[in-house]
Structure formats: structure tokens, C-alpha cells
Amino acid sequence: MSAADGERIAVGGGAWYGGGGILLARLSSDEVALHPVQESGRRFTVSGVCFSGDDRHLAASTCSASHHHGPTYLF
């Protein structure tokens, strides 16, 4: 998912057993950051990412290894 300004992209991922994260990249500066997604020792797979309309926030949905919903994060 790219931000409306075209400067940033966000990619979510993970494996069957979780261990997912969000990769954020700023295209103009080659700045890259990986943010793992886990809570209380449980690891989740990122199933979707979306920037808010004003590009100030990033929402991420997650799921668990058994394909149950996981927490939704807002950055």
C-alpha cells in the first residue's frame, strides 16, 4: 500500500505460524524500517495494511496461525 503522497509504502506479511511484521519504506531517502507484530508473546501474520486518507496513520489487520482474527493495530 502506498501513501497518497507517493513517498512511503507499507507492506505486511508473515508466515503460517505468525512472525509477521510491517515493512515501511520512504522512497526518497532509502529509509526502511521493519516493525514486528506480536502481543503477549503471541505472533501474528499481517493480513492487510492501509494508510489513512490524510497519510498520518497506518492501520494493520492481523490473523493467527489458525486463521482466527488477531488484533488490529493503528500507527
What does this protein look like?
Helices cover 0% and strands 56% of the residues. It is mainly β. The strands form 3 sheets. Strands 1-2-3 form a 3-stranded antiparallel sheet, with no helix packed on it. The radius of gyration is 13 Å and the shape is elongated. It starts with 7 loop residues before the first strand and ends with a strand.
Keyword list:
8 strands; mainly beta; 75 residues; 3-stranded antiparallel sheet
The first-to-last residue Cα distance is 14 Å
Estimate the global geometry from the Cα principal axes: elongated
Low-confidence stretches: none
| Sheet of most strands | 3 strands, antiparallel
What share of residues are in beta strands? over 45%
Please count the helical segments. Answer: 0
| Structure classification | mainly beta
Rg (CA only)? 13 Å
Query: What letter string, H or E per element, gives the SSE order?
Result: EEEEEEEE
Q: What is the spatial order of strands in the main beta sheet? A: 1-2-3
The whole-number mean of residue pLDDT values reads 86
Q: How many beta strands in the DSSP annotation?
A: 8
Question: In short, what is this structure?
Answer:
By secondary structure, the chain is an all-beta fold. Helix content is 0%, strand content 56%.
Helix and strand layout, with pairings?
Layout: E1 8-15, E2 18-26, E3 31-36, E4 38-39, E5 42-43, E6 45-51, E7 58-63, E8 73-74
Antiparallel strand pairs: 1-2, 2-3, 4-5, 6-7, 7-8
